[in-house]
Design a protein that fits this description.
This protein is of the alpha/beta class and about 425 residues long. The protein is built from 18 helices and 14 strands.
Length: about 425
């Protein structure tokens, strides 16, 4: 089957790589000429484990093609996936500029029957606008579907091949059958529904995950006050299969391109339909407060004397196995510390290059040990496995003062204290600073 992917971003490239690997002829369109030229040479604009090999393999087998031309790809494609960004606006609304532009250009080049499937996360009701745009610029027969993605950055290849579910929203049996056939090599339960239900599934899933994160952080904050161990409490609660352990770990809050945006977009969308989503407003507020909580821990560990102190930040990306800096907690933490006069040294295994676009006045280092030299406090912000294997005896000798603030609870705090560190985790009772 011939497929066109509109948008060579995270979702678009993963989708293009997976379907071309199944033997389909896939065109991937993006308006960024430099990006397209790099992709033709198998140079990816971001880090995702395994994706570079997937793209390179299918370029070599001439099943995957990158272009800026709609005219080359659209007319003969049976399925067209819209995978452009829908970034947030300041008030929680979604910026649909890229989406509408992509739909307009697609419509201009339709020929014969086409199935247009929206993978971009879009608010309820946008499908009506999309249909109007297509009809305005095309006389060809088309059908519309929603096929939301549920990829986790850092494990996107595995998630694409073995997802929990495949959601297809459409009012057309023909469209549903085409998408079912296209996904026949992919496991996961099939959910066939209307477009609005499909779009809502995406928002509900991400918002519920964000709710679990904020709930876990609230439990951790309470645990510190009552003298309990949040790790034990949450593990015990998660053993109940109705609760589960996924996303039930305390930390410095969620980030990335999906959870923060989708929570606020869900609240905004609900408001437009006359519903006050108080729960999700609280989820967002708790997540923002978690940054303040962590910065306050850092201040407390330094006797509220941050100005002029070197503080080490280990981990910059919003989660491990990605270089994505969008809404990364590290950015907020670092900027607040900088505003208080701290000097920041930072290290991340893959995100440093991207982090330089988000952070100024930071000393970026090539490894964790270099970042720790002369530091008054070392902060774990992203739980990269590399940090779990550090030579802590070496770290303690090169720091000005051996203080660790473990924002992801990656260390056994009893052992790390035995190694001579002053330690503070998230929701942990046996901390040195109270």
């Amino acid at each position: 089957m011939k497929i066109t992917i509109i948008g060579a971003g995270y979702v678009g490239l993963v989708t293009a790589g997976i379907f071309s690997d199944f033997g389909h002829k896939v065109y991937c369109i993006d308006i960024d000429k430099e990006k397209i030229e790099n992709l033709k040479a198998a140079k990816l604009p971001f880090f995702e484990p395994g994706l570079d090999d997937l793209i390179k393999r299918n370029l070599e087998r001439r099943r995957l093609f990158f272009t800026t031309s709609h005219e080359v790809a659209i007319p003969s494609s049976k399925v067209i996936f819209i995978c452009v960004g829908t970034p947030p606006l300041g008030d929680g609304e979604v910026d649909l500029t890229q989406l509408y532009s992509a739909v307009k250009e697609t419509a201009k080049h339709l020929k014969g029957y086409s199935l247009i499937a929206i993978k971009s996360t879009v608010p309820i009701g946008v499908e009506e606008d999309i249909e109007k745009i297509i009809k305005k610029f095309s006389k060809s027969k088309f059908e519309l579907a929603s096929c939301p993605e549920f990829l986790r950055e850092g494990s996107a290849i595995a998630d694409s091949r073995r997802p929990d579910r495949i959601v297809i929203g459409t009012k057309s049996k023909k469209a549903a059958d085409i998408l079912l056939d296209l996904h026949k090599h992919i496991s996961g339960e099939r959910i066939i529904c209307d477009l609005r239900s499909a779009q809502l599934i995406k928002y509900v899933a991400n918002s519920f995950l964000a709710t679990k994160v904020s709930f876990a952080n609230s439990v951790a904050n309470l645990s510190e006050k009552v003298g309990a161990e949040a790790d034990t409490v949450l593990w015990g609660a998660g053993l109940d299969r109705r609760v589960g352990h996924t996303y039930l770990s305390p930390g410095v809050g969620y980030g990335g391109s999906c959870l923060p945006k989708d929570v606020l977009a869900f609240v905004d969308m609900a408001k437009k339909y006359g519903f006050n989503f108080k729960l999700l407003k609280a989820v967002d507020e708790i997540n923002e407060n978690q940054i303040d909580n962590f910065v306050e821990k850092i201040r407390k560990s330094l006797n509220n004397q941050v100005k002029g102190k070197i503080i080490t930040i280990l981990g910059l990306s919003f989660k491990p196995n990605t270089d994505d800096m969008r809404e990364a907690p590290s950015v907020k933490i670092i900027n607040r510390l900088l505003s208080q006069g701290a000097k920041i040294k930072a290290y991340d295994p893959v995100a440093t290059k991207n982090a330089k676009n988000y952070l100024k006045d930071v000393i970026f280092t090539s490894n964790a040990y270099e970042a720790a030299v002369g530091s008054s406090a070392l902060c774990i912000v992203t739980e990269w496995n590399e940090f779990k294997e550090l030579d802590l005896a070496k770290i303690s000798k090169i720091m000005k003062k051996p203080i660790i603030l473990d924002g992801r609870n990656i260390y056994n705090h009893k052992k790390i204290k035995e190694a001579g560190f002053i330690y503070m985790g998230m929701g942990r009772r046996n901390a040195d600073i109270s």
